[in-house]
Amino acid sequence: MRVHVVSDVHGNSRDLAAAGEGADALVCLGDLVLFIDYADHTRGIFPDLFGAENTTRYVELRTARRFDEARELSARLWADVDKAGAVEAAVRRQYAELFAAFPTPTYATYGNVDLPALWPEYAGEGTTVLDGRTADIGGLRFGFVGGGLPSPMRTPFEVDEETYAAKVAALGEVDVLCSHIPPLVPELCYDTVARRFERGSEALLEAVHAVRPRYALFGHVHQPLVRRTRIGRTECVNVGHFNATGRPWVLEW
């Protein structure tokens, strides 16, 4: 059995269309939407609306952790724009391309920048969306937990600690624990380019200790200090920043 796993697609529909080649199934751990490309300030919803120069300034402020100033800049730019309408229209355009690129079967959960309310409109019969639920893939039980935890970034799909922990607990025993964000392990949460710790989940870490799955798979941290580590019998793996690499992580058994 061969499963390809991707995360942090961020608009890369071209490579996504080929991500399932040679696999029995594709697993997607979220963040389909591209709002800002930190490596290319001409790509994404924000530069499409406000240009590369404003995007560069916004990225500089966020990277420097000057979040209040970044929010002030954003507020000025959005002042004369119907933000909700403009963002939804742009996300719908991206989702139309991205969901059409998913192979059959695909098992997917949400990232912290996704808009879950729109997914039912675009997920076809070959795509199973899971959050706080499990699926049998090739005889192994995969558990999925979508979204992120509250952060200074204030991304669209962040839930509180209790809600997130309840989704993890609902999975029960699993062989493969799939989430967008990592377990709360410092070296898995630190982004070496952004130079900050991203949010990791204590509930996921507790599940790794208690359930002891074969694998804990996640994304979210684009340039992690450590891409994989072992906790007991569990191999914890950041499956990679698919937007940048265009390559899925491969799981075979």
TrEMBL record:
Signal peptide: none annotated. Pfam families: Metallophos. Residues 1-224 form the Calcineurin-like phosphoesterase domain. Gene3D superfamilies: 3.60.21.10. This is Metallophosphoesterase. It comes from Streptomyces chitinivorans. The lineage of its organism: Bacteria, Bacillati, Actinomycetota, Actinomycetes, Kitasatosporales.
